[in-house]
Structure formats: C-alpha cells, structure tokens
Amino acid sequence: MSHAIQERPVTAAPRRGSLAHARLPRWAPAAIAGGSIAAGIGIGAAAGWQSKVQWGLVSALLFVLVTFALTTKVEGSRQAKDRVATSVVWVCFVLAVVPLLSLAWVTLSKGLEVLDGYFLTHSMNGVLDAEAGGGLYHALLGTIEQVAIATLIAAPIGLLTAVYLVEYGGGKLAQAVTFFVDVMTGIPSIVAGLFILATWNLMLGFGPSGFAGAMALAILMMPVVVRSTEEMLKLVPNELREASLALGIPKWRTILKVVLPTAIGGITTGVMLAIARITGETAPVLLLVFGTKLINPNPFEGAQSSLPLYVYEQYAVGTDAAVARAWAAALVLIAFVMILNLVARGIARWKAPKTGR
Asked: How far apart are CA 90 and CA 336, in angstroms?
C-alpha cells in the first residue's frame, strides 16, 4: 500500500504573533564593538583630543547606543533593553580591566629596569638618593615584619569578634560592637596613625618603631576582618550546627570543628583583603616608623622603613635613578601581595572540608 508523502510548506518569515522572532547574528556584538572603537578613534582624532580616555568613553557610548538602535529595529524594544543591560555590564567590565592591565604593564616594564638580585639584597646605606645603586632590602624586611605583627594582632581579634556577633551576639552589646566596627571601617589611615602617636609615643613615651606602625595597621585591618568573617559565618547552613549540637557536641566545639572549617576559604580571603589594604599604607608608617636607610631587623626599637614609604621617598627625590627604584619597589610590593594571596588560597584549600565520597 502506498502512502502519499506530503511536505509541509516552508515559510519565509514568521507569522505575526508567533513565538519565533528575528534575531541579530552572533557576530553582531563583536562587529558593533569594532565599529564603535573605530568611530570613537575617528571622532577623537578629528576633534583633536589628546587623551585616549576620551576616545574610549566615546567608543563605549557609541557601542551602547548602536546596540540599542539595531536591536530595537530587528528584535524589538523588549530584547533591546536586555541587550543594552548586557552591553553596559561589558562596558563597565572593560573600563575596570583596562586601567588595571595598564597599571600592571607600566609597573612591570618600568620596575624590571633595576630589579635584580642586588637590588633585593642591599639597602640604601651609604648611597645618596640622587645616585644610582642601592636596594630595598631594609624596606622589604620592615614591611614583612610590620604586616606580620599587624596580622597577628588583628586577625585573632577580628575572627573572635565575628564569631561572637554571629554565634552569640544579639543584645545591646552586639549592636554596639557592630556600630563601632562600621565606624572603624571608614576611618582614614592617618587617624589610626595619630591615635597610636598620641597614646603609644606621646603618652607612654615610646619612640618610633615598626611595632608602633604595626599597631596602627592592625586598627585598619580589624574591621575588614570582622566584616568579611561575619558574612562568611552567616553563609554556613544552620543544619550543620543543628546536626552537631544534636549529637551532644558543645557549642564551642561545634564552632571550632564545624563552622570555622566550613567557612575557612572565605575567612582566609577576607584576611588577605585586609592584608592587601594595610600593605600599601604610607601615612601611619611615616608618622610612627619614620623610615631609615639602614637595615633594622628589630621592629620593637628604632626607626624602620617599609615598601610604601620607600616608594614615596624615592619618587619624591625626582631623579631618574630614584624614580626607577620607586617603580621597582612598587613591582615588589605587588608581587608581595600576590604571593600572600596564593599562599592563603593554598592554605584555605588544604584546610577546607573534603567533599565527595
């Protein structure tokens, strides 16, 4: 028995009211971006703008406007709004990444001119700031000691404060602690330095030292640790706490063995963010540590130097040799923070609770 095979007709375009709509091709965003960049460069060159930032802003504005116009014409106004939102997100991402990459490239290219083994293992003792030579060993040593002492002071206090606020707090004391943590988050670094200067140096009579600078850095570090740790502890499911308590395990042991290991990755990240903030501070070090060209391994007595202060001092000299040393010190400072972040992430992954069978 034969059956007639009937083929359905193929429509050239979707009917009005159907779910299918015309769409821009996948390569359209890239083409629009390329055309917008070319148009922005042309407008900037024709207008005589010297700043490349102006060219980039014009290109970004053209990209959003052209995307909205073409999408409205082809796909409709509703889809156009969605594409515009996506375009704005991409533009903001590019505007954030381009300065970062530019800064990294400039620091790397200028810092490598004088960065070598001699520069890392020698101080500025006996070298004039305007002359070539010397190194930053004394500043690197001071930064390591000051940041380490500040971390030893601020990290335990911040961690225990966050544990109290999340696991035990709930009354007026917790509200007061939260308020003061919020206030401390926004204080300028110079205020922390002036506080230590007025109490530790003027009232108690101690002289400049790396420990004094570390205490000021700890004040800046504590609220960041508290806030980040508090948010990470809140993300731990209550079911884990309840399961542990149901087995008869004390609350302090539940916090120590269940809550903190679960949130250790986020806590470590928060601590590293706090360390990254204080590592680049110059004002407290300038007030309390004073700076020196000599190597001082004792952070509790005598003036010390630090990498941010070293960068400031060398750049202020203004000579080619001093500015080159400043760029090299800035590169070492960035590498120092990056290494700390990698080590912290490794520790967090090592200590994090194992998943799977």
From this structure: 30
Give the tokens for residue 37.
């960049």
Spatial separation of the C-alpha atoms in residues 190 and 188, rounded to whole Å: 5
Structure tokens, 321 = 């040799």
Using alpha carbons, list the distances in angstroms from residue 179 to 176, 252, 271: 5, 25, 20
- Host H or E run for residue 165: none
Task: Please tell me the distance from the alpha carbon of residue 14 to that of residue 20, in angstroms, as a whole number.
Answer: 6
Summary count for the chain: helices (H), strands (E): 15, 0
What is the spatial distance between Cα 155 and Cα 150, in angstroms, rounded to a whole number? 8
CA distance 258 to 264: 10
CB atoms closer than 10 angstroms to residue 275: 24
What is the distance between the alpha carbons of residues 316 and 297, in angstroms, rounded to a whole number? 25
Contacts of 140 (CB under 8 A, 6+ apart): 120, 307, 332, 336
Rg of the Cα atoms in the chain: 29
- What tokens were used for 30? 């890239």
How does pLDDT run across 268-286, given as a tens digit for each residue?
A: 888 988 898 898 888 888 8
> Each residue of 24-41: pLDDT tens digit?
788 888 888 888 888 888
CB 107 within 8 A of CB 330: yes
Query: What are the b/e assignments for 13-31, b being 16+ CB within 10 Å?
Result: eeeeeeeeeeebeeebbee
The residue assigned the tokens 């309840």 is 242
Q: What is the pLDDT of residues 60-95, one digit of tens each?
A: 888 888 888 888 888 787 888 888 888 888 888 888
Given a contact cutoff of 8 angstroms between Cβ atoms, the answer to whether 294 and 138 are in contact is: yes
